Amino acid sequence: MTATLTRGAERLNRAFARAEAEGRAAFIPFMTAGFPSLADFPALADQLLAQADIMEVGIPYSDPLGDGPTIQRASEQALAGGTSTRATLNLIRELRQRHDTPIVVMTYVNPIYAVGPERFMALAAEAGVDGLILPDLPPDQDIEIADLAARYGLAVTFLIAPTSTPARVELVARACTGFLYAVSVTGVTGAREGSALGEVPAMLALARQHAQVPVVVGFGVKDAATAHEVAQVADGVVVGSAFINAVREGRDVAALAREIAEGCRR
């Protein structure tokens, strides 16, 4: 893998450093592109970006194995409304005209291959994407994707979970150039009852022995209290399903984003 620090990695590093200097974990909201519709997504993303240190935008995909029912339904709704990979990048291009906040794309590998790996990287870089989160691509199985991403200035992020072996944690930690994404629980995305930490502290301690990038935690963070809990041990807090649920229930997404961002303080 290319060792040179990419443009995207530099921007992500600055975002994490700024949050750390302010005594908080970075707040990283997630939203599925094109949800609740292509027309309504930009205003929703604006509300999240107003509080975000980094924004995660998901490319809707028909077989999202790592996503829980909340994000799966959001993807289905976005796809039914005409959101494609290219439409997602167009939405990010529009957001980039109004926001300088780093934006990373969460995508399964099939949409990348459907466009063509190099073409995808070129389009993503042109749209203003800073990095990719690749939940179903083991870093030892296709180094072409990571190398192409680096060539186009994009950082890459892979995932670890409580079930990851020490050898796997080391491999993934060393491969990440954006940040390392630690899944707080075994299973799929979605808000849960109780603690959001689970086996996270021990997993992060192991990951930090090898990672040269910040470590963020996602899956199960649903409100300011759980965000605050995670912020004590992680460099960043990812929240997704809670915002999708808020949209579906007609709740104030901007207020929820402010509350969770405040909860990321240590």
From TrEMBL:
Give the protein's recorded name: Tryptophan synthase alpha chain
Query: Is Amino-acid biosynthesis set as a keyword in this record?
Result: yes
- Which SUPFAM superfamilies does the UniProt record give? Ribulose-phoshate binding barrel (SSF51366)
Alphabetized CDD domains for the sequence: Tryptophan_synthase_alpha (cd04724)
Could you read off the lineage of the organism from its UniProt record? Answer: Bacteria, Thermotogati, Deinococcota, Deinococci, Deinococcales
The subunit structure is: Tetramer of two alpha and two beta chains.
Q: Which UniProt keywords apply?
A: Amino-acid biosynthesis, Aromatic amino acid biosynthesis, Lyase, Tryptophan biosynthesis
Q: Which Gene3D superfamilies match?
A: Aldolase class I
UniProt pathway annotation:
Amino-acid biosynthesis; L-tryptophan biosynthesis; L-tryptophan from chorismate: step 5/5
Q: Coiled-coil segments, which residues?
A: none
Q: Spell out the HAMAP family in the cross-references.
A: Trp_synth_alpha
Give the Enzyme Commission number: 4.2.1.20
> What's this protein's function?
The alpha subunit is responsible for the aldol cleavage of indoleglycerol phosphate to indole and glyceraldehyde 3-phosphate.
List, from the UniProt record, the residues annotated as the active site of this protein.
E56, D67
Family note: Belongs to the TrpA family.
Q: Which GO terms describe its molecular function?
A: tryptophan synthase activity
Give the catalysed reaction(s), semicolon-separated.
(1S,2R)-1-C-(indol-3-yl)glycerol 3-phosphate + L-serine = D-glyceraldehyde 3-phosphate + L-tryptophan + H2O
